Amino acid sequence: MKIIILGGTGFIGRHICEKLVRAGHEVTVPTRKLENAREIQMLPRLQPVLCNVHDAAQLAQAVAGHEVLINLVAILHGSEEEFERVHVKLPQRIVAACKAGGVKRIVQMSSLGAAMDAPSQYLRSKGRGEEVFAASGLDVNILRPSVVFGEGDKLLNVFAQLQQTFPFVPLAGSEAQFQPVWVEDVAQAAVQLALCDHYKNNSASRSIYAGEQPKIFEIAGKKVLSLRQLFELAGQCVGAQRPIIHLPDGLARMQAWAMEKMPGPTLMSRDNLDSMKSANVASGKLPGLAELGIDAAGIEAIAPTYLKPKSKMDQFRKSASR
Ligand SMILES: NC(=O)c1ccc[n+]([C@@H]2O[C@H](COP(=O)([O-])OP(=O)(O)OC[C@H]3O[C@@H](n4cnc5c(N)ncnc54)[C@H](OP(=O)(O)O)[C@@H]3O)[C@@H](O)[C@H]2O)c1
Questions:
Q1: How far apart are CA 20 and CA 5, in angstroms?
Q2: For 78, which DSSP code?
Q3: Which end is more exposed in the chain, N or C (fewer Cβ atoms within 10 Å of the end residue's Cβ)?
Q4: For 122-179, how does the pLDDT look when each residue is reduced to its tens digit (9 = 90+)?
Q5: Span from the CA of 321 to the centroid of ligand 1 (angstroms)
Q6: How many H helices and E strands in the chain?
Q7: pLDDT digits over 196-244, tens only?
Q8: Cα distance between residue 103 and residue 105, in whole Å
Q9: Distance of alpha carbon 4 from alpha carbon 8, whole angstroms
Q10: CA distance linking residue 8 with residue 65, whole number of Å
């Protein structure tokens, strides 16, 4: 099968690419910079292509001739206009390109909590994006993951680094609830929905692939954990457990505002705080990993495989560079 993956160079995308090429499929990955595809470009049957996906003509050219499109492009921080451009206008362009290019199926990576009336711009724009796909008339599969963990994640790794660097860490939203899910499980779910003709014919739960349109899946792990528990788990894994300074709302917003203004990648924004106002936990009203036949991995078993205490050599290098 010929599959195009928008955002295929990212954290979740790399795992999806690997699974698809291993299963013998041809994968195209448009990217804004070819060097962003360095971790996947050696995979067999995978073609990175330079493309501005926000340009209708370039997108249509990249999409034509593929049978399935997987969309993973998203931003976590930005202005209202930027969220609209990436999460709503891009889906409109994708639908137009898929119709013109003969793509028969779309897999959209959304987010748990995406809804028109959600508390943050990120989640509201993700909800509007879902509506665009739902109204397309195409075969649409929407995945709504909770926070995703795994090698290279931006949550546990950051919590681990903060605790390896500072004697204490100010943390906002420490009691916010999540149902973390392993990146390999998210990727497996996306692959099964992308290849649902195959899974429809070969799986015990075949009806799940032929549900009403759009098919929406809540992709969550088995356990609900607070942000504080995730922070503590990261600290345990790297052998550097630091105390948390719980920030009250006002201070948390000031901290997030300051982080938005700092140069470099944004770690936390006021919109992220708004997202945490609703629990990032599966409602249980929609199918999830279990219905797809995937046994969700536990975070306590996986996190120590990629979060390690600093070795004596790391510590020596650090003190030698001072
Ligand atoms: N990671 C999580 O915990 C999590 C949780 C819930 C939902 N999700 C959803 O899962 C999807 C994938 O997440 P991820 O963590 O793998 O994301 P990621 O690592 O940030 O990757 C996203 C990819 O999208 C492309 N991209 C980013 N901004 C773009 C822009 N403004 N215009 C065009 N392309 C852009 C980038 O590709 P190039 O740089 O190559 O162009 C990037 O590699 C997203 O829809 C996200 O909302 C993720």
A1: 10
A2: -
A3: C
A4: 999 999 999 999 999 999 999 999 999 999 999 999 999 999 999 999 999 999 999 9
A5: 34
A6: 13, 13
A7: 887 777 766 667 887 788 899 999 999 999 999 999 999 999 999 999 9
A8: 6
A9: 8
A10: 18
Show me where the domains of the chain are located. 2-148+181-220+282-296
Rounded to the nearest whole angstrom, what is the distance from the C-alpha of residue 38 to the centroid of ligand 1?
16
Domain 2-148+181-220+282-296 sits in CATH at 3.40.50.720
Q: Which residues line ligand 1 (CB under 6 A)?
A: 7, 9-13, 31-32, 36, 53, 72-75, 86, 109, 111, 145, 147-148
Would the pTM count as exceeding 0.85?
Answer: yes
Residue 49, strand partner residues: 30
For 135, 162, 242, 315, the CA distances from 165, given in Å and listed in that order, are 48, 5, 10, 12
Which one, of 49, 48, 47, 3, lies nearest residue 23 by Cα?
3
Residues 23-66 pLDDT 10s: 999 999 999 999 999 999 999 999 999 999 999 999 999 999 99
Tokens of 8: 């295929």
